[in-house]
């Protein structure tokens, strides 16, 4: 961890979270929110909580409120770019670390801060090593169930909302409803897509390293 003085820094902290890592279709999205000291009750009153405990419609509404009231950053990695990065890095946690670190850096461009809190998704050194100049003096704290932190919960709302938005437009592009998650319905949709557009379509809409890819290609081949 890195230590830094509070001198010339805003009182508060950054929370980051991601959405899409367990979804076969769609992007991986990381988001961050700077929460000034004393603002936790405001978010609680708005109903902000871990996005997994909030309906999609509510996520969209809360996202608008958070975007309008707090310094934030969203980094989205579309399927094609995601697949390129996974081929190169062969490690999801390294991709997550890159995305979280970019979110932190973007927020530090707007507000000086000394603490960032994120969920514990892998070796902390991944994020520390990915931080650039502005993040060199920030203290990074990874927590289990970090969404209990209101800044992280707010970030989870932003990340999920952006994931849903991009999944919707990706569905429009390919004229099929791309389901969330990784389920038999996802497999069925993948088979339909490959039959219509060919196997390369999965690189454009899905995270190819999922085991689901081989099942889809196996069904089409048979």
Structural class: alpha/beta
Number of strands: 5
Going by CATH, the architecture of the largest domain would be 2-Layer Sandwich
* Strand adjacency order, main sheet: 3-2-1-4-5
Shape: globular
Task: Briefly note the CATH topology name of the largest domain.
Answer: Nucleotidyltransferase, domain 5
| Count of discrete domains | 2
What's the level 1 CATH class of the largest domain? Alpha Beta
* Helix and strand pattern: EEHHEHHEHEHHHH
Helical region count? Answer: 9
Q: Report the average pLDDT across residues.
A: 91
> How big a fraction of the residues is strand?
5-15%
Q: What is the share of helical residues?
A: 40-55%
Radius of gyration: 18 Å
CATH superfamily of the largest domain: Ribonuclease H-like superfamily/Ribonuclease H
Short account of what is shown:
With 222 residues, the chain is an alpha/beta fold.
Walk me through the structure:
- The protein is an alpha/beta fold.
- The protein folds into 2 domains: 12-171, Nucleotidyltransferase, domain 5 (2-Layer Sandwich), CATH 3.30.420; 176-221, no CATH class.
- The chain contains 9 helices and 5 strands; from the N terminus they run E-E-H-H-E-H-H-E-H-E-H-H-H-H.
- The chain has helices spanning 40-46, 56-69, 79-89, 92-108, 124-130, 150-174, 184-197, 201-205, 212-221; strands spanning 12-19, 28-36, 72-77, 115-119, 139-143.
- The chain has a 5-stranded mixed β-sheet with strand order 3-2-1-4-5.
- Helix 7 packs across helix 9 (212-221).
- The radius of gyration is 18 Å and the shape is globular.
